Amino acid sequence: MLVLITYDVETTNAEGRRRLRKVARQCVNYGQRVQNSVFECHLDPAQLADLKHTLVNLIDPEKDSLRFYYLGSKWERKVEHAGVKEGYNPEAPIIL
């Protein structure tokens, strides 16, 4: 299933900047950054549970926030893109 993960981490101090790097690093491990704090992640239920647990434990709930948008398996009809960066298909083969 495709899950859109967004986050807002307060970065007014060193600890906040450290949390931001950790959250971003975890998201990069599971998906594709599509905007600064927005990731598209193609996950199975176990991966989703693991990532969600990890992210919730990384943030400071008094200062930071996470959002998970569940787009499901028929996400192609739910995502529309306009502008500079082209969209990508997370289910397509990656050619290096």
Describe this structure in words.
The longest helix has 17 residues, at 14-30. Helix 1 runs antiparallel to helix 2 (45-58). It is globular and about 40 Å long. Helix content is 32%, strand content 25%. By secondary structure, the protein is of the alpha+beta class. It is built from two helices and four strands. The protein has a four-stranded antiparallel β-sheet with strand order 2-3-1-4, with helices on one face.
Question: How many whole angstroms does the radius of gyration measure?
Answer: 14 Å
What is the helix tally? 2
Strand order across the biggest sheet? 2-3-1-4
Derived structural class: alpha+beta
* Count of beta strands: 4
What is the overall pLDDT average?
86
- What order do the SSEs take from the amino end to the carboxyl end, as H and E? EHEEHE
Helix content: 25-40%
Which band does the percent of strand residues land in? Answer: 25-35%
Q: Quote the distance from N terminus to C terminus.
A: 24 Å
Low-confidence parts, pLDDT < 50 over ≥5 residues?
A: none
What is the 3D shape?
A: globular
Q: What's the short version?
A:
The chain is of the alpha+beta class and 96 residues long. The chain has helices spanning 14-30, 45-58; strands spanning 2-8, 32-35, 38-42, 65-72.
Question: Notable features of this structure?
Answer:
2 helices, alpha+beta, four-stranded antiparallel β-sheet
SSE layout and pairing:
Blueprint: E1 2-8, H1 14-30, E2 32-35, E3 38-42, H2 45-58, E4 65-72
Antiparallel strand pairs: 1-3, 1-4, 2-3
